[in-house]
Amino acid sequence: MHSVLDRCHRTLFAVLSLLGVRGQERLLHRYFDWWHRRPDPWGLAVDDYEQFKYATTLRQLPARRYRRILDVGCSEGTFTHRLAAAHPEADITGADISERALARARAAGPAPRFVRLNIVTTPPEGRFDLVFCAELLYYLGRARQLRRACAHLTAAVAPGGLLVLVHPWPEARRFCAYIEAEAGFRLIAEHVERGGCRPFAVSVYEAAGAADHRAPRRPAEHGRRTGRGA
Fold first, then answer.
1. Within 13 Å, how many C-alpha atoms sit on residue 82's CB side?
2. How many angstroms separate the CA atoms of 123 and 42, rounded?
3. Domains annotated on the chain, with CATH
């Protein structure tokens, strides 16, 4: 069932992307505001699969200090607030296209900070040590929009910083290819969760530092047991 729904979902957003960047932005804004007419429409705060995915994502991060963190496509801020709990010393920003979602995210507490952003049309302000983009890129449709979004994502990463993509597997490989086409980024960790009916991948990219001349390396792929259900 998930695979059928996913195919319908991808077809819909591929068609929307034919409207051009501005037309697509207007429709996506309305679409996500409509979805957020009620709180937590996808059950991100309570669904076991989502909680497992959040925990799996955080486990892939290198143990280092992150001063500025950005969560792109944050919805109502469920993962963003989890980041704030895990990194209380960091300046954390959540960004989303839906004003309704952002209003609920802000209502949950004075921090993190939440801003409206369409990653296709507008790059984030400033640069960050850690940038997340989860379950977002498949909404963008055509290659043109994906290239723009990924260029904006990589531009937001400070030298030596990390960009983390989290998307369904094996579709995630298609999105990762756009990041790998950007100069100065190397894959340092990738976890593929193959269990259950909703496999996903967490891919961690590191931006070159000011004096980083190391040759890129591709890590071994890791996966958990295959018996876990969603």
1. 20
2. 26
3. 2-207 (3.40.50.150)
Q: Give the three-state DSSP class for 193.
A: strand
The reply to whether omega before 170 is within 30° of 0 (cis) is yes
State whether residue 187 is helix, strand or coil: strand
pLDDT in tens, 177-213: 999 999 999 999 999 999 878 999 999 999 998 555 3
CB half-sphere exposure, 215, CA atoms < 13 A: 1
**What b-and-e string marks burial along 85-118, b requiring 16 or more CB atoms within 10 Å of the CB?**
eebeebbbbbbbbbebbbebbbebeeebebeebb
pTM for the predicted model, two decimal places: 0.86
How many residues does this entry show for the chain? 230
Residue 59 to residue 62: CA distance in whole angstroms: 8
pLDDT digit string, tens, across residues 29-72: 898 999 999 999 999 999 999 999 999 999 999 999 999 999 99
